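Quick start: what a row looks like.
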Amino acid sequence: MGVKDVVKNLINKEWFLPPIQRTYVWADRHEAEKYICRLFDSVLNGYPIGNIIIWTTYKDISYREFSSDFKSKGGYKLKESGINQKKSLVYDGQQRLQTLFCGLTSTINGRTLVFNLNYNETDEQEREETGFRFVSDTKKDLKDFEVSMPTIFKSNESSKIEFRKKYCNKTNDENSQVRIERNLDKLWKQFVENNPNQMSVSEIKGDDEAIVNDIFERLNTGGIQLSMADLLYSKIKAVKGYEDFESKILDAINNITIDTSIEFTSYDLLQILHIIVKGRSRIDEKVSDEDIELFVKSWDSLYEVLKDFTTDYLVSRFHINRMSIVNNKFPLIDLIVFLYYYRKETGNGFKKLSDDQKKRMDKFFILAEITDWTLQSYTDNFCRILKNNDKKEIFPLEEMIDYVKERGNRDTEINENNFCDKKWFALKIIFKGTTYDWSNLAGKRYNPELDHIFPKKLKEMKDNPECPDYQQEVDVLWNLQPIKGDENIEKSNSAPKEYFQTHPEAFEKYEMVPSLDDDKWEVQNYRDFIAYRKKLMIQKVKDLYDIEILENKDNNL
């Protein structure tokens, strides 16, 4: 079957997806656009792009449509089919079909696929590329010889002549004109004409949905391999009435992200459910019917806990508004599981906990993140402790610390080394009342960056024989302040006192620093400044969390 006919089946809503299919993942993976361009390059050059497997049935089965304009947030809506309504359900090939559909008819994550008609595949440098790329605005971003793929796809034979005239007239170079004509011929053959040999389509025979679903689980060929999470989601969605289970989780993730900017993945949430139901974080698709019932029943309660945890704990208590501030998600999972059992036992959320229990949660959070209590086995055992805890309103911090001591392969105390290694997290818990501004406008450096208050490349200290280790000495946590990227650029390598005297509005954003008339701001006194700020920051951790930061024996500051 040709690409043209395949995409028409999606446009005309003749092919659908069964509920057990995972979501579209190609657009979310690392370097997604690069891999998508390679798929289109394979089609352009007539390379095989794999088999499509469908099941055509008249049974009363829920289904979902392919997305006509893909955006990578939120869930999907299932449709109910009536008896005797014909449906062709795609069981293998979703990722390729969804990519072709959006690439040829609309956008992927708001960006349009375009092709350079003057692309030279014989050029050694250009051979590393494909001629395809994505643009945000087809009116502003197109280069001289580029054309959008949706424009090509909806064209006909007569418009090919118009394209040839339009683009060949843009250049007097005969080699370029030859390339334009050759590339247009290839585009037309693969994306406009009906080339029946581009894709093979196989059909599953029979009318037993259970057998078809079993075949789906065995179809793990090509593309991104099905993970255990994919298979577990498929098993749950195969149960009548639970077809929208994954969609609910995706919608919940989207809602939490909109409300708090904290982004979980569907894998994260399935992992938490797996701990609650199966008692371990490593996901296994081998589940009983009773397990599936528990997964679904546990979800509604867990969703409330997640909203509670992100809003009242991470955002309100620590002003954490990005998951990247946290070093590892496992300590978060431990805290979420504690709140899950607490809510299940008492019906209450985080705000109802006593101040003492909140502080115990804080202490665990910081110890676990800084000293790397982040192994799966740690989380499994922490959650076992939480489940077996008789008093669900008491966070069993001491028992968790005892477990870590018994294992003997992680610290249970924080020292300057491990604290300073986690710069962003360490600064966040010290400056817990400060919200980092992640606005990113027009591609400029607006995201927060770590400013060296005394710059590493301070002109006055260059080649200073009295301070040969200056750069190393100022490259420490105690000399860092998170600020917006554009402000960091402006301050650059200026002497701090000189800069702040002329930029008093910037000085107001720096925390735990002496007044500007203090001698510690003099360039030659940078060691006194760092020692002063270090003392304040360490004391702040003690005051807020009752955590001692042990001094390194080899530390001079």
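That is the whole record. Residues 289-318 form the longest helix (30 residues). The CA atoms of residues 116 and 146 lie 4 Å apart.
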